[in-house]
Write a structure and sequence with these properties.
This protein is α+β, with helices and mostly antiparallel strands. The chain has 23 helices and 33 strands. The radius of gyration is 37 Å and the shape is elongated.
Length: 644
């Protein structure tokens, strides 16, 4: 009995005579030891009852230990259940690391464990292992299999788990983590796993651990998001073969050859001494002739890498020559409603050409019809269905592309900037307010709505098409409800100009035919609209053109009918100025820019009277003149510039 605590023995003797005891958490361990030694089962049960009522965050691990030591199953189950229900808090206690491996495994396997996030399991496991790392690190591989890695945030796996020194020291652990990532990539619907930050990591992981499927999935993401991936730190660590595979792939998507040039430069400059000899091989996959001439002459020509390579200099000269050879071959393309053939007007020769391989094989009788050009492709959007064709390939056929989310009404307008197309429809959507339906009647191009004007309101909507991803996304509609305005884009900002006011509280319930001079500006980065400087003369069904970073707004319908006046907006001074008027009033027409001049194409010059002319504006002469007669009826608002 020499190892028994004297105070505990005293309480045991008192219990023998009185059948009573007052154990505390501070003394209960020694009392249990003494009662068991003296076979005082009643006192032992009294201690267990006391402990059952004392389970809390501070005591649960201690009570679990006593319950296990003295074989009290009910008490151990109660303590375990408390720990499982409060695992986040309990695992942070200092005594948690004193648990046995079997205890840790039991908790991790339990279906009753309650955690705020699976990261708690990782933190608890690693705290337990690193408390006695030399003796416990061999248990890491077994415990990893209980941590539900497929549920972790991608960034946590990549930045924390994968980079942990114990993981990196163990090949089985690295393989297990890699396989968990592959499983998520290939078989789950989680969209957060593959992103700009992770794609290169997963690509390398797939290559290093021979998972071709995961590597291919990552490669596809990289090819589809090449413009952004090249700016990620991991891009510069790819080897030459990987970079070459990307830049010469037929599936790589980038908005301009300038970005392909930047990708090659970023990779070379990370280790110029070792990589500069690869520059000519990579540069031959960059179509320099498609770069803006100012970039080619001012940036590429003066680049240090290019100066020291005769091969690269020759490629530059070839590109400059091809640019000069192709100058002046831009044409205005439009679709003949009768023959459904794409026709082009070449200003230099003043000749018409049929582009026979581009013939419309589907209906486009409904308005609105939008035509826009991105690189060598002509896109045609009717209501919400879109098709694409290459006007350069003789055997090219129309291909159905991604469908717009919302069917557009007459009065919608579009604008192309880079690889993006913006479509804004300010037309109101008929609704029922307070149980009263609003009726709608079509009158020619317009829609007449009837109902209590205090109940009519308008919704507007917009969408943006990404030609690289072939996908449409919603964007906020214009704040001021209106339709039949025009769009223009300068310095990555989109301007919605003028239009026809719609009935709403914001427009003081004005009618459908009220032209406005409101201008609103959309920022694609912040996805917000702001007020811009209003144009001088209110108008709708007008056309817009961008020349030398200035916005020109032409013609349209004003307060007194169709107009021929033109205004230009300087984005630096933020001032609208009137410039020379067109030879005739026009509405529902197109404006194009070729070789520093603006062309106004077709349109109506009075109600139901179609103007069959193309006229040119030279900003230096500030004068308009008719340059060609139209020999056909073309689609409204659908003339575009192509480079034959």
């Amino acid at each position: 009995m020499t190892d028994l605590d004297s105070e505990a023995v005293k309480q045991c003797i008192e219990f023998m005579y009185t059948g009573e005891a007052t154990p505390t958490l501070e003394t209960i361990q020694t009392l249990l030891h003494a009662s068991r030694f003296l076979h005082l089962d009643g006192l032992t049960e009294l201690c267990f009852e006391k402990l059952m009522g004392e389970i809390n965050l501070q005591s649960c691990l201690f009570i679990k230990h006593l319950a296990h030591t003295y074989s009290c199953k009910d008490l151990e189950v109660a303590a375990n259940n408390f720990i499982l229900s409060n695992f986040d808090s309990v695992s942070g206690k200092t005594s948690f690391v004193d648990l046995s491996k079997d205890d840790i495994v039991q908790f991790m396997k339990s279906n009753d464990i309650q955690i705020s996030t699976v990261i708690s399991l990782w933190n608890a496991t690693m705290a337990w292992i690193k408390y006695d790392v030399e003796n416990r690190k061999e248990d890491l591989h077994e415990l990893l299999q209980l941590l539900r890695l497929e549920e972790y945030p991608e960034e946590f796996i990549r930045v924390t788990i994968w980079k942990d020194e114990l993981i990196q020291e163990s090949d089985p652990c690295k393989l297990f983590v890699a396989q968990a990532i592959f499983k998520v990539i290939m078989y789950s619907n989680r969209l957060d796993v593959l992103n700009l930050q992770s794609c290169l990591f997963i690509k390398n992981l797939g290559r290093n651990f021979s998972c071709r499927k995961a590597e291919n999935i990552a490669n596809k993401f990289i090819l589809n998001n090449f413009d952004d991936v090249i700016f990620e730190p991991g891009f510069k660590y790819l080897d030459k073969e990987e970079v070459m595979h990307l830049i010469q792939s037929h599936d790589v998507r980038y908005c301009s050859e300038v970005n392909l040039w930047k990708a090659v430069k970023f990779w070379i400059e990370h280790d110029v001494v070792e990589r500069k000899n690869h520059f000519p091989d990579m540069l031959q996959h960059v179509k320099m002739e498609k770069m803006p001439s100012h970039f080619l002459q001012n940036t590429v020509r003066n680049d240090d890498l290019l100066k020291f390579s005769d091969v690269c200099k020759d490629m530059l000269m070839d590109a400059l020559f091809r640019q000069v050879s192709n100058e002046g071959k831009c044409s205005i393309a439009m679709i003949d409603r009768s023959s459904k053939v794409l026709k082009s007007y070449e200003p230099i020769s003043s000749q018409w050409h049929d582009i026979e391989n581009v013939k419309i094989g589907f209906s486009f009788t409904e308005n609105p019809v939008f035509i826009f050009v991105i690189e060598e492709y002509l896109y045609m959007l009717v209501k919400k269905a879109m098709h694409r064709i290459s006007w350069k390939e003789k055997q090219s056929e129309w291909v159905e592309m991604s469908t717009m989310h919302t069917k557009r009404e007459p009065g919608a307008t579009s604008f192309t900037i880079g690889r993006f197309v913006y479509v804004i429809d300010g037309r109101s959507i008929p609704v029922a307010v307070n149980g009263n339906a609003i009726s709608e009647t079509k009158i020619g191009r317009h829609t007449k709505r009837s109902g209590n004007k205090s109940e009519i309101y308008s919704n507007s909507s917009g969408e943006c098409y990404d030609s690289l991803l072939n996908s449409w996304t919603h964007i906020p509609g214009v704040p001021t409800p209106r339709t039949n305005g025009c769009l223009a884009g300068v310095d990555d900002m989109i301007y919605y100009i003028g239009g026809k006011l719609l009935a709403s509280k914001e427009t003081n319930w004005l009618g459908m035919d009220s032209p406005t001079n409101i201008v609103e500006m959309y920022d694609p980065v912040s996805k917000t609209w702001t007020k811009a400087v209003t144009i001088k003369n209110a108008r709708y069904d007008c056309a817009s053109a961008v020349l030398n970073k200035s916005i020109y707004v032409l013609g349209g319908v004003g307060q007194q009918g169709r107009v021929n006046d033109v205004e230009v907006y300087d984005i630096i001074s933020k001032v609208w100025t009137s410039v020379g008027s067109m030879t005739v009033p026009r509405s529902h027409f197109s404006a194009c820019v070729i070789d520093g001049c603006i062309y106004a194409v077709g349109g109506d010059y009075r109600k139901d009277a179609y103007d069959k002319t193309i006229e040119l504006f030279d900003p230096h002469k500030r004068k308009w003149e008719v340059v060609k007669k139209l020999n056909m009826k073309i689609i409204d608002n659908a003339a575009v510039v192509i480079n034959i």
